[in-house]
Amino acid sequence: MLKKSSAKNPKKLKVSHNVSLLSALPWIGPALVLIILVVIWPVIELVRISFTDISAAGSLLDFNGLTNYRDLFANPDLYPVASRTLLWVFGIVFFTVLLSLPLAQLINQNFPGRKYVRWALIVPWAASVVMTSMIWSWILDAYSGELNLTLTQLGLISEPVDWINNPGSSFYVLMWVAVFVSIPFTTFVLLAGLQSIPADIVEAASVDGASHWKIYRQIKFPLLRNSLLIATIINLINVFNSFPIIWIMTKGGPGYETDTTTTFAYKLAFIESNMGPSTALGVMNFIIIMIIVAFYLRATRATRTEI
Amino acid sequence: MNKLIKRSFAALASLGLVAGALVVAAPAQAANVTIKVVTPNYTDAMPAYYKDLNARFMAANPTIKVEHENLSWDDILVKGRTYISTKSYPDVLNLNTFSEFAAEGLLYKNSDLYSEAKLADFVTAFRDNSTYNGVEYAVPDLASARMFFINKAVFYGAGNTKIPTTWAEVTAAAKKIKAKYGSKVYPLAIPLGSEEAQAEFQIWAGGNGGRYFNEKKSKWVINSKANLQTLNQLKAWVKAGYTQPNPASTNRTDAFKLFSQGKVAMINASVFFPSTLKDYKSKVDYGVAPFPSANSSKKPITLGVQDYFMAFKKTGNQDAVSKYLNFLFEGKNYAGFLKAAGGFIPATKSASSEVDSSLLPFIEQLPNAIFYPGTLGSWGAVTGKIQTQIGTGITKDAKTVLKSLQKAAVAAGTK
Which residues of B touch A (CB under 8 A)? Predict the structure, then answer.
């Protein structure tokens, strides 16, 4: 049913192809220069540096081939960190989407005060992640945090629980904060998806006697697929790159026990003065991100042709 | 991004060189020199101190211009390194390490900057710690030593009569405190969080004869028997419930706060701790004693830590940085520096004679001081690793943790 519009699109694209690159240059030139300087050049430099020997003081010495990569992969601490990163990325994205789906449904309903609920939902997104992380570490502080205070007053605990630093809960607390900051964006992408579902289809289904659950399962959810896909992939990128939450709440410690590859790369470079392997890890992180971006581009292309 | 900044710095620097060449080419003009001074913010009194010092210095030396940058410790550790790696060296730098820069031949020798009489005024032990490969490349600016602090009310209230001098006595005292106060007070704080874990471990290990580096044999000894015993002893105290929970995640600042609130009975703390307690408006009545050693056959030690002034070699700046540093270390100016830095031990003999009486017990400990192997170029890298990893020995196998640290240190080298 959506094929009609897809037939229209290529025509429009053709028109834009007729403009020659040269005549477009004055318009896109400044942006291109900016992208080359700020995006592409640093990437090239990153790759170049990763093949260079770097002194403890940080000066570049000689080209040394794959040594940095060999050192990185010979580091036994890398592997637990890498598998924790998988848990971090997929765990957070899974729970974010799981919680965002019903939330999007909720704020798509008409009820008094909906506007305020929507605003409230945006706050964690609008606030800086650094701020949010600090507020959570205060809430969860063992000795003066609000959570322990409340639990003690309710008589649920008798001694303060060190949520952030207990080895059993530490990483999950960090994951929860990451879910908390990811929910607003995801919910609003899904809300946009819900609002783009034509009302007549839903109406037709309910006239035909379909239950609410059936309408959701068989009509709304399939039509949400594209928003879901985009929300998921953008979250994958964000969460993978996420640095401030971990750094502010635990610094990846104790040891490397709450590190992901992102904080680990920083730690190698600036705490352990081990610049070489850190740049190699930077390149690896970049490759992983590029793979996710490739999926993103495919997904958005799929979206474009279908709607 | 870094590289981008680096390039623009390089471009600026080369412009600067051209400009410099022009100045030199201009005949019979007194060369105007600008020196960049980068310093850490020991306390918030530092910027005002430097503002006054630099104004007076520039008035006395009209051909020298001083640009001053005062950074927090967190910033200077990262930014300082960024300056070096982007080759935009400051002229004068005040930092907690110098050897990695000396190793790369970036620094002036002390003999290039100071007269022998001036150098002779620095406390000998601190001066010895400022050498790289036997040559002095930096001067100490101040130092700290550590002692054992107790909360008198809690400590004596639990029935203890004497401040512990051995580990066994620490255990006995902790047992009494725990019996009396239960979960209200932690008998002993052991902050092995990344902030200062290297110091916390070293001061306990030092009382057992343990070190990170053997100077005589010039090799790393992190996984020595003495260190292993120490880590296991700390572990035993944690297991017995005598310490705050999760020592590996407790930073020194956290532990200091607990002590200031009366929640800790015994703690290792530095010479500036009294002024910290004052800042926290703490009402704790504290006592200070030499640090307990492993047993009565081992002598008590303190951990000495010093920071440095160093000057980077650049064409035409030697005379200016020499004048500047000599000016800073003049009697009154240096006294002002110490006052602004707040409660540290002076690095010169002349200033040591007129210190505040609260510093005296710490200065008395200095003959027993052990130091980090700060003269090694690789110390910066090794200390970073110790800071983040040594605390994990509390929950993991102590031997494995020390072994992996040893391996990393050996890989970092002994230069």
Answer: 1-4, 77-78, 81-82, 84-85, 87, 100-101, 103-104, 106, 183, 192-194, 245-246, 248-250, 258, 263, 377-378, 380-381, 384-385, 387-389, 391-392, 395-396, 404, 408, 412
Name the burial class of residue B395, with classes exposed (0-12), middle (13-18) and buried (19+) by CB atoms within 10 angstroms of its CB: middle
Give the model's pLDDT for residue B13: 45
- pLDDT bin (cut points 50, 70, 90) of residue B3 is very low
Nearest CB to B385 within list A59, A252, A272: A272
Q: How far is A56 from chain B (nearest CA, A)?
A: 7
Distances from the Cα of B287 to the Cα of A118, B150, B241, B273, angstroms: 56, 5, 23, 12
Percentage of chain A modeled with pLDDT above 90? 44
Q: Inspect the interface and report whether the beta carbons of A38 and B4 lie closer than 8 Å.
A: yes
How far apart CA B398 and CA B248 sit, in angstroms, is 13
Delimit the domains of chain A by residue range.
51-306
- Judge whether residue B19 has pLDDT over 90: no
pLDDT above 70: percentage of residues in chain B? 93
Stated as kind and residue range, the H or E segment containing B92 is: strand B92-95
Of A45, A166, A274, the CB nearest to B3: A45
**Whole-number pLDDT of residue A64:** 82
Note the ipTM here: 0.77
pLDDT in tens, B32-56: 899 999 999 988 889 999 999 999 9
Q: Give the distance from residue B2's alpha carbon to the nearest chain A alpha carbon, in angstroms.
A: 8
Q: To 10 degrees, the CA torsion angle through B58, B60, B64, B65?
A: 10
B100 contacts A56? CB cut-off 8 A:
yes
Q: What is the DSSP string of B202-233?
A: HHHHHTTT--SEETTTTEE-TT-HHHHHHHHH
Reduce the DSSP state of residue A44 to 3 states and report it.
helix
Q: Given an 8 Å threshold on Cβ–Cβ distance, is A165 in contact with B249?
A: yes
Q: How would you class A237 by CB atoms within 10 Å of its CB: exposed for 0-12, middle for 13-18, buried for 19 or more? A: middle
What is the rounded distance in angstroms from the CA atom of residue B227 to the CA atom of residue B229? 5
Q: What is the fold of A51-306?
A: MetI-like fold (1.10.3720)
| Dist CA B185 CA B154 (whole Å) | 8
In chain B the domains, ranked by start, together with CATH numbers, are: 32-143+305-369 (3.40.190.10), 146-270+378-412 (3.40.190.10)
Mean pLDDT of B20-32: 46
Nearest chain A residue to B1 by CA: give it: A42
Which residues on adjacent β-strands are paired with residue B326?
none
Number of residues that make up chain A: 307
pLDDT tens-place string over residues B200-229: 999 999 999 999 999 888 899 999 999 999
Task: Give the nearest chain A residue to B100 (CA atoms).
Answer: A57
Contacts of A60 in chain B (CB under 8 A): 85
First to last CA, chain B: 31
Q: Which amino acid would we find at residue B32?
A: N
Q: Please tell me the predicted confidence (pLDDT) of residue A10.
A: 47
Mean pLDDT of A283-303: 84
Which residues on adjacent β-strands are paired with residue B95? B308
pTM confidence score: 0.80
CB atoms closer than 10 angstroms to residue A288: 17
Chains A, B: CB contacts within 8 A come to 106
